């Protein structure tokens, strides 16, 4: 590493390069206890401090999409033998955004960016999640209409949503809600049991070309699109009773 001191400061996420120049001009920046001046370079092993506080290198943000197989639990609790973290065995700390039931499969996001987790999980964001669901008996028009218009589960009526028959026992559903085990509970309320549930899309990201059990990083374009989609979301907020914003 050999970069200018203002770029080093901005790369840590402490402030912009322009603001870093002001700190340097004010004599508030040191490199190895020597007051820095504009144009100084920072090399590997150098200690850069602002107002006597060492600057820590910012962690690179990780955003990944996993096609979760059945039997993996969306928990970071390593006491659970089927936990998603041990399954991935990734080199640094990451955590899932929302969850899929152990018996469900399909798309789930993982990241080390707590800020984007909060934004995506907020119910007010109304982000779409798309699923293909197989049930234990043939679906009919009455069932499809009921699913579309809302089903009473857990003391509330689910929001209206897109539902389309895809086969004798199979349908596609797009949710913006994320109540706990929502699709399974909706089906059970109408006398059906879910035999297979696969999430195929979250927001702008799909399972395309991602085999079961495999993962990939988001592309730059995907990150930019998601950032734009959550731009109006505050970091904290009332989930309006929706405690699992990315559940199925």
Structure explained in plain terms:
The strands form four sheets. Strands 7, 8, 9, 10, 13, 14, 15, 16 and 17 form a nine-stranded mixed beta sheet that branches. Strands 3-2-5-6 form a four-stranded antiparallel beta sheet, with no helix packed on it. It has a two-stranded antiparallel ribbon with strand order 1-4. A hairpin with a 2-residue loop joins β13 (162-167) and β14. The two termini are 45 Å apart. Residues 235-244 have low confidence and may be disordered. α1 (5-11) packs across α2. It has two domains: 2-54, RNA-binding S4 domain (Structural Genomics Hypothetical 15.5 Kd Protein In mrcA-pckA Intergenic Region, Chain A, Roll), CATH 3.10.290.10; 63-229, 2-Layer Sandwich (Pseudouridine synthase), CATH 3.30.2350.10. The protein has seven helices and 17 strands. It is α+β, with helices and mostly antiparallel strands. The longest helix is centred in the C-terminal third of the chain and has 10 residues, at 220-229.
Break the fold down into its secondary structure elements and pairings:
Layout: E1 2-4, H1 5-11, H2 17-25, E2 29-31, E3 34-35, E4 41-43, E5 48-50, E6 53-54, E7 63-68, H3 84-88, E8 95-97, E9 105-111, H4 114-121, E10 129-135, H5 141-149, E11 152-153, E12 156-157, E13 162-167, E14 170-175, H6 182-189, E15 194-202, E16 205-206, E17 215-217, H7 220-229
Parallel strand pairs: 9-15
Antiparallel strand pairs: 1-4, 2-3, 2-5, 5-6, 7-9, 7-17, 8-9, 10-14, 10-15, 11-12, 13-14, 15-16
GO molecular function: 23S rRNA pseudouridine(2604) synthase activity; RNA binding
Catalytic activity: uridine(35) in tRNA(Tyr) = pseudouridine(35) in tRNA(Tyr); uridine(2604) in 23S rRNA = pseudouridine(2604) in 23S rRNA
EC number: 5.4.99.-
């Amino acid at each position: 590493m050999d970069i200018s001191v203002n770029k080093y400061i901005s790369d840590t996420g402490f402030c912009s390069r322009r603001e870093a120049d002001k700190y340097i001009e004010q004599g508030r920046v040191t490199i190895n206890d020597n007051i820095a001046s504009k144009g100084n370079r920072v090399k590997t092993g150098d200690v850069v401090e602002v107002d006597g506080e060492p600057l820590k290198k910012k962690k690179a943000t990780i955003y990944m999409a996993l096609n979760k197989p059945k039997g993996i639990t969306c928990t970071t609790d390593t006491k659970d033998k089927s936990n998603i973290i041990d399954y991935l065995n990734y080199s640094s700390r990451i955590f899932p955004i929302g969850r899929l039931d152990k018996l469900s499969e399909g798309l789930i996001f993982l990241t080390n960016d707590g800020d984007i987790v909060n934004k995506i999980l907020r119910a007010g964001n109304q982000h779409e999640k798309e699923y293909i669901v197989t049930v234990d008996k043939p679906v009919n028009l009455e069932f499809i209409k009921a699913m579309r218009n809302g089903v009473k589960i857990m003391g509330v009526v689910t929001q209206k949503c897109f539902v389309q028959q895809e086969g004798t026992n199979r349908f596609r559903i797009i949710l913006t809600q994320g109540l706990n085990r929502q699709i399974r509970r909706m089906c059970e309320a109408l006398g059906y049991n879910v035999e297979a549930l696969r999430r195929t899309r979250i927001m702008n990201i799909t399972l395309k070309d991602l085999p079961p059990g495999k993962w990939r990083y988001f592309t730059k374009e995907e990150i930019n699109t998601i950032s734009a989609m959550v731009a109006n979301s505050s970091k904290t907020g009332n989930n309006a009773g929706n405690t699992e914003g990315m559940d199925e």
